[in-house]
Write a structure and sequence with these properties.
Layout: E1 11-14, H1 16-32, E2 36-37, H2 47-54, E3 60-63, H3 66-72, E4 79-85, H4 91-98, E5 103-107, H5 110-119, E6 124-131, E7 139-140, H6 144-155, E8 160-167, H7 178-196, E9 204-207, H8 210-215, E10 224-225, H9 235-240, E11 250-260, E12 265-269, H10 272-275, E13 280-281, E14 287-288, E15 290-296, E16 299-301, E17 308-312, E18 316-320, H11 323-328, E19 334-339, H12 342-349, E20 352-354, E21 359-360
Parallel strand pairs: 1-20, 2-10, 3-4, 4-5, 5-6, 6-7, 6-8, 8-9, 9-10
Antiparallel strand pairs: 1-11, 11-12, 11-19, 12-18, 13-14, 15-16, 15-19, 17-18, 20-21
Helix pairs in contact: 5-6
């Protein structure tokens, strides 16, 4: 029985072969640069995909919430790092997890550091997040007063242990000159390493954006990389030049419910609650919520002429279709959509189906 015979409603397909190739490629790159790969599991959020990752010498992961850490705890990871400015209201839950799983958190202010120092019941590591130009969050790279205030609080604690500096160059998603951006990242982390290395000889530096980790070949003396989206990739990463369409490992299967040939439109059951609402806007101003591919027994085929989802509502997706696609599709067929942002699509769908019809877990689902 084909996996296609099991699909009656929107289903997120996962090509295990492509996913494994993506993991291996990034693991090989980290090894080539003498770096440790600590992937961000906010993308996959799957213990099974975690097991695949372990086959490529990955021993630690990053997550974006305490809830996600709890899901992945106890699965054999050497450490789980929560790469989000830590919310002190969740210290009791962190204590529960840290009783059975090595954990680290991310700090950007002294107030949270003090609360952790006062309330932790088990040893927890921490990275200080650094802002070297992104502007979203983190300690300004030149704010040594705040850095040293946090370090002093940790020195006086027997539970809070300094691990190093973390820098997420998230502006690589919209800055065209990634090499220039990475020069800032390298310089910032190298400066901090050399400034504090004598006092903390084992401190680590980590960077984590997928576009930079995918295209750069000069990481300086950065110790670790922690990209996330690379396990699946998506059309945003294709647009940024991080990967090719053939590297996208997930595809939303959607039923065709209506066709209007005169308008060159195909209506599918697949909207914002499935794809999320991330969008690419072309030079002509047309919005693209996902690219259409043709499903087959072995996965999907990328067509030469591009059809795309031009608009979405909660459950509906409206495809701007080429003549080629209109000739091949009828009501009741199933089409595939390569997502714009695979992390959000996976989170919305809460589970995966492999091309052999097996279900793969996701933290937000119940498969």
């Amino acid at each position: 029985m084909s996996y296609l015979d099991k699909i009656t409603s929107p289903t997120l397909l996962l090509d295990e072969k492509i996913c494994r190739a993506n993991i291996k490629r990034m693991a090989d790159k980290a090894a080539r640069h003498d770096m440790k790969l600590v992937p961000h599991f906010k993308t996959a959020q799957s213990n099974q995909i975690g097991d695949w990752s372990k086959e490529y010498n990955i021993t630690e992961i990053t997550v974006s919430s305490v809830k996600m850490a709890e899901y992945h705890a106890g699965q054999g990871w050497v450490n789980i790092h929560i790469a989000f400015p830590f919310n002190p209201l969740e210290i009791p839950k962190l204590n529960e997890i840290a009783a059975r799983q090595s954990m680290s958190v991310q700090l950007i202010n002294a107030d949270t550091a003090r609360m952790l120092a006062d309330q932790l019941e088990h040893t927890v590591g921490f990275f200080i997040e650094i802002d070297a130009g992104y502007g979203r969050t983190g300690v300004e790279v030149s704010d040594f007063g705040l850095i040293e205030e946090i370090l002093l609080i940790a020195k006086n604690s027997d539970k809070l242990k300094f691990k190093g500096f973390y820098l997420h160059a998230g502006h690589s998603y919209y800055m065209p000159d990634i090499p220039e951006l990475y020069e800032q990242t390298r310089n910032a982390l190298s400066m901090l390493k050399h400034k504090y290395n004598s006092e903390y000889p084992h401190l680590l530096t980590r960077t984590g954006d997928t576009p930079g980790c995918a295209v750069m070949e000069d990481f300086g003396d950065i110790d670790e990389m922690g990209p996330g989206n690379f396990v699946f990739y998506d059309m945003m990463q294709v647009d940024l030049g991080s990967c090719d369409r053939e590297d996208v490992a997930v595809c939303l299967a959607v039923p065709v419910v209506d066709i209007k040939k005169d308008k060159k439109e195909i209506l599918v059951h697949g909207g914002g609650v499935h794809l999320a609402k991330d969008v690419l806007v072309g030079e002509n101003g047309l919005k693209n919520f996902g690219e259409v591919v043709l499903l087959n027994e072995n996965g999907w085929t990328i067509t030469e002429q591009k059809s795309f989802v031009k608009s979405i509502s909660q459950e509906h997706g409206l495809i701007k279709a080429t003549d080629e696609l209109l000739e091949q599709v009828k009501v009741g067929d199933i089409l595939g959509i390569l997502p714009i942002h695979s992390c959000m699509t996976a989170d919305a769908m809460g589970g995966y189906m492999t091309l052999d019809g097996k279900m793969v877990d996701h933290a937000e689902g119940c498969v």
